[in-house]
Amino acid sequence: MTNVPGQIVRRGGISRTIFVISLVIVAVAAGLGGYFSYGFLHPSPVLTLTGSGSTLVYPLMSAWTSNYNSMHSNVQINYGPVGSSNGITDFTNKIVDFAGTDAAPTAASLAGLNATLMIPETIGAVTVAYNAQGLSTGLHLNRTVIAEIFQGNITNWSAGDIQYLNPGLTLPNQQITTVHRSDGSGTTFIFTSYLSTAGNWKFNPPSKSWPTTPAPGALGGNGNQQVATDILSTPYSIGYVEVAYALQNNMSIGYVQNHDNSSFVKPTLANITAAVSSYAASFPPGSQSWSSVSLLNEPGTNSYPIVSFTYLLVYQQLNLVPLMTLERSKALVDFLWYIVHQQGQTVATGLTYAALPQQVVTIDETTIQSITYNGQTLPT
Amino acid sequence: MSSSMRRFKDRLAFALGALCAILAMIPLLNILYEVVKKGLSTINLEFLTNIPGVVGQPGGGIGPAIQGTLILIGLTTLIGVPLGLVSGIYLSEFGNNSIGRIIRFLNDVLAEFPSIVVGVVVFTLIVLTFKTFSVIAGALALSIIMLPIVTRTTEESMKLVPNSIRDAATALGVKKWRTTLSVVLSTGRNGVATGILLSIARIARESAPLVFTILGSQYFFSNLNSPMDALPLRIYRLALLPYPYAQAQGWGAALVLILIVLALNVGVRLATRGRLYSMRSRA
Amino acid sequence: MAERRGLQELLHDLSRPSIDGLFKLSSLVIAASVIVILAFSGIVLVQGSLPALAKYGFSFLTGVQWNIAAETFGALPYVLGTAVTSLIAVVVGVPISLGIAIFLAEMAPVSIRVLLSNIIELLAAVPSIIYGLWGFLVFRFWIANYVEAPLVHTFGSLPVLAGSPYGLDFLTAGLILSIMIIPTVASVSREVMMSVPMSQREAAYSIGATKWEVVRTGVLSYSRSGIFGATILGLGRAVGETMAVTLVIGGAVGPAALPTSLFKPGQTMASIIVNELGEADAGSLHLASLLGIGLILFAFAFTINVVAQFLVWRVLKVQGGPVE
Fold first, then answer.
1. Chains B & C: contacts with CB separation below 8 Å
2. Which of A45, A115, B71, C89 could form a Cys-Cys staple with A316, CB 3.0–4.6 A?
């Protein structure tokens, strides 16, 4: 090549362009290779189902989908832990096949949608977890004091109200940092519903969005997970998390006073189940809203007061969900059947979620059997 | 001012400059140190190829996330590079007029779109319309981010080719389109290829647009219309989890991601070797 | 090449079909895809945020409440949050970047120059989510223990330091942003300084100036606007950054997110969108407000970058023809 003045001249070494282009090709190839390799390894068509929502049920849902996938390797159920509000919105927008929420939508909020079924799949408990040096687990708390702490009226660990409930303990003289949910959360709904029974809680009505309180330096975490992480990493903090996260991470949890004010209850599986067993009213069918069902403040010496069902939302006529097929509907129904019956419920209790009472299982069976695809009921 | 005072100021300026350099190096070195120290111990073949395990229990890996990142890179390149290449060619060869100026300006506007806004737009236009989180939506979002970079770097590289070359070709009777593709583009191909690599390095590290488009997944890729995992997104989800195993996996995934991005950047370094420096800082 | 008005050219080509004309036309069509993308984006943002803008008008920018159930929304806390974190980023990051740029361009011996510029580029290559991971798991504890705790200990009563000095707050977010903008500001400043003609420096050297004096009189004053442009570019990057900020800023909402103190948790425009977009029901005022914030964010980034381009590209314009 003759030297044209001004032309860019290459100076030896491997051709840069070839090197660069080969990198691009490698990237594209790796990607497509990944695509095809899965096809070679799993020749049977894969059925994918997508759900999203509640982070309260996330550890359990993760175990369920993993177990179900080991039993039916061609069914992949993907759950996005984005919070109950996000799950409900995804469900409304029909971009997921099912949604998880701890706050049962009211009949009014479902008015504009196609017929929606509510399937309570398990029962969770909200703990008050904290991280205060010098304080081990088991701090005695009642709803009045909890309300005062979270609304910013009690700002120091050594406050008299806390001391009164814990006469033997030396409380640190440190500012309390409260941790709440920054995203729309069913756990927040459960917790604020509980606090509103205290009488001194100013932020009514209960809602999935945490209210703006004057509590100094209150931290907002995204999902139950980040609330737990924030509590674990922030000194002298206190927040509300589902019991599974608290136990799995050895967090200090408060023993909360029960409904009869007779004892301070530790959130164990037995005490959560005791709360469920004390529920006296009847349950509505799955085709109606469960927003009136509350397991809070159940009577009984051992009944943990902050307990709640968590629900899966499914459209009754699955053919109305875009991209839904008969095969995927069958898989969804089979999965739902699995989780509410004994196999699934054993997994739940292993993670400190209470088992569904037989009454609720029966109602869920009817609900699941009412799911149709193009008018066809689906095998269970 | 005495000369020793001036010399002192000179030394002081040098010292302060060096101090600034050291200050900037400390966080970088610490990040690399943490990522390597905490990530290396997590990385093994299982970690790189397994699907994530059950939440709350140690074990599992980031296989789907790595596959997802590679697939996204591949798809985005397939969409964004041709578009950007041709746009850059247009702007460089035919763009010296009012239409060209408008397109150039709009291209710069697009380059300044915060990536979260790109994610929002693609969520509304693609995810909500087609009623599913998908790999396609993620690739489209990343292509929107890639397009202005490739356009801009292609245009600049082709503009660097001296007009004498184009004139020489015309003088020999070669048509304009042939000149552009065979002569000008091949002369400027190093710069163009560098720009492409740069843009790939840029999109490989994006995470905000992925949150609303691919949702994340525990499984390997199944089809273009389903949710998928990707390294930046998985790192985000792992960072939120309180479990020690999750944080360790987050560092491991971070190490893998940094290695991928570094490999791309080393490619850019080898390809430019000092010249065309201006391009690197603008992507 | 004689310059013709674009439309004239287009019509000229359309009237005389040829392969060249086809090539030009088809490349124009593809280049115009950027117009399509922007148009769609504009429609989505503007149309989506109309309900909020219609309801609040200008007071959307000054409103402080953010109550989803009561459907009251105001963007001010997040706008201020972005402003404060970006300001911290610039105040801390730009001087350091300038120091590096001057050091690299004018003072450092060649061996260090290469090593250092490689390190700076490495900083730029680190993905922002990894800054977030590191910030959330490592950096915030540094700041909490070595910066916030001593400050609270000595000056605790100052309102600007009130809050919760545990590292998830405006200060940490701002400091992480400052680290992230260093590569951009340093490299563009360095380019600007390097484009100062040697004659400026030679003139100063010829009257016996020291290196620092050469820099101060010959280079810095000449490249002032370019350096300012580099600062604005860094500001633009800080404004748009999402994931790193979201992980360390603490997630406050509404009036609690107002940046009244460095040590309190807050929220920026980008982080509120990431946190809440998925929950906002289609057609709701909530979604409209979030899209409105997206629009404001885009306007911020756009304005900042137009100003920066004007200042920097003027100094560094790449012309057709051989490179010097």
1. 285
2. A115
